[in-house]
Amino acid sequence: xxxxxxxxVTLGEQQAxxxxxxxxxxxxxxSQVVRAGLRALDxxxxxxxxxxxxxxxxxxxDPHPDIPAAEVFARxxxxxxxxx
Length: 84
Description:
Elements: H1 14-24, H2 30-61, H3 69-82
């Protein structure tokens, strides 16, 4: 029983990538290629989100005192002027 819905997708240059995978026999049909691509995208986004959460936690847990935004911008302006 089919649980998905049919859609039309215009791939452009990615069509050649899909065709190559089908011709190599790696996948039986375009739907399998697209599903595999979406699974890979999910894994990538999960990894990026995990990294971002860890970096945010690290920043929040940093014992160093906060630097006021005005001071940060003043330092950046100074660096920028010195680099001219």
